Amino acid sequence: MLTRELLPIPMTSGGRLDINSGVARLSGKIWATLWKDDRRPPGTAVLIVHPASNFIGHYALEELASRGVAAAGLATRYVGNDSALIMENCVLDVGAAIRRLRELGYEKIVLVGNSGGGGLAALYQAQAENPTITHTPAGDPVDLTTADLIPADQIVMAMAHPGRAVVYTEGLDPAIVDEHRPFDRDPGLDMFDPANGPAYAPEFVSRYRQAQLDRNRRISDWAFQQIEALRARTRRSPSGGQEVPDDLPFVVHGTAADPRFLDLSLDPSDRAVGTLWGSPWVANFQPASLGHLTSLRSWLSQWSHEHSRANAYRRLPGVKAPVLVVSGSADCAAFPSHARGMYDAVGHDRRELVEIKGADHYFQGRPDLAAAMCDHIVEWAR
Q1: Beta partners for residue 33, in sequence order
Q2: pLDDT tens profile 53-110
Q3: Which of 161, 191, 236, 266 has the lowest tally of Cβ within 10 angstroms?
Q4: Among candidates 264, 288, 380, which has minimal Cα distance to 325?
Q5: Around 326, how many Cα atoms within 13 Å sit in the side-chain half-sphere?
Q6: How many angstroms separate the CA atoms of 293 and 245, rounded?
Q7: Boundary-marking domain end, from 301, 322, 341
Q8: In this structure, are 269 and 129 located in the same domain?
Q9: Which GO terms describe its molecular function (predicted)?
Q10: Among candidate residues 308, 139, 292, 303, the one with its CA nearest the CA of residue 227
Q11: pLDDT in the model for residue 42
Q12: pLDDT tier, 12 (very low <50, low <70, confident <90, very high otherwise)
């Protein structure tokens, strides 16, 4: 009989105030949902992760459990709010979840990075196998070398892109010339200007991609400068000591401007024109789309192309565990080059690349294709 239970998991302190809710912060816990077949002894557990999405109700959990493995969906400390997210703390959360599953008797752990969880899963496994990180990109202490992270036995990149900083930069609008005035635009770098396409010429795409990297780097440099400047803003506290703000929030406009959203000849697949949030032009400025509100420290850890560590292209070459990459031919968020790039990055032959024909990012209207993904994961686990 399939059962579902809510797992409380001890949360390692991140050392800073980056969770708004006092209830969540003071509880000292994160949470996961565990689906399992009570008629089977503990064996293999599949853990599905993402930095900020609530995977407690993930669509694959019951399907996986019905195939004879236990399936857990994790909610990190940043569930539903990535504005102050620190990737290194997400690694600690994944580590705590794997440790809890081991304590429950599961001998084999398959770590699944779904969507934006791909970069996190790759970073976790790399650090669990060979821990090196002692500080965040902003310089805050977060010692993964002493965190006793337990490596997963296998890794799955499921409908995943290589990392939030990568896909974010690929959607960062380079036509914005003033970070405070999103509609003051450089027409020569505007994918929404009909004079440029679609279709987009190779020369335009090349300039566009470089300008995206340049904008990301400018924001990263500015974030470091602002963190340094904050150190001068000390004041005397009521208790007589010194206090200083150590982070600030800011807005990033234009984050859904990937030319692939409008030009299907770029990175060709079966996808439809558009984004996960609808029209690219609207999603580019819509608060609910990707990464418009962040903080200085979170930007460096989560969105900075140069400084974020959660990049599967960079992490997978050192990973020793077997790696399965599952992609959808109609996915408009994780593109064919992402899947191929992650597969090629794996530094050994215990790897597999699977494409599910017709599957979009969320398998909308196609539970049969979601079931096919679960079949691949369970077959791989066995």
Answers
A1: 6, 73
A2: 999 999 999 999 999 999 999 999 999 999 999 999 999 999 999 999 999 999 999 9
A3: 236
A4: 380
A5: 28
A6: 18
A7: 301
A8: no
A9: hydrolase activity
A10: 139
A11: 83
A12: confident
Do 373 and 60 meet the contact criterion of CB atoms below 8 Å apart?
Answer: yes
pLDDT tens per residue across span 159-196: 999 999 999 999 999 999 999 999 999 999 999 999 99
Cα–Cα distances in Å, from 205 out to 114, 162, 201, 212, 351? Answer: 28, 20, 6, 10, 31
User: Which residues are CB-neighbours of 174 under 8 A, at least 6 positions away?
Assistant: 186, 189, 208, 211, 212, 214, 215, 257
**In the block, residue with structure tokens 């690694």:** 91
Helix/strand/coil percentages in the chain, nearest 5: 35, 20, 45
Question: What is residue 232's predicted lDDT score, i.e. its pLDDT?
Answer: 84
d(CA 256, CA 280): 6
Handedness of CA 120, 123, 126, 127 (dihedral sign): negative
pLDDT range class, residue 331, cuts 50, 70, 90: very high
Residues 25, 86: Cα–Cα separation, whole Å:
15
Place of tokens 């993930």: 58
The DSSP line for 93-149 is HHHHHHHHHHHTT--EEEEEEETTHHHHHHHHHHHHHS----B-TTS-B--GGGS-P
Alpha-carbon Rg for the chain, nearest whole angstrom, is 21
Where among 301, 330, 362 does a domain terminate? 301
Domain span at 140? 2-163+308-381
Greater model confidence, 335 or 25: 335
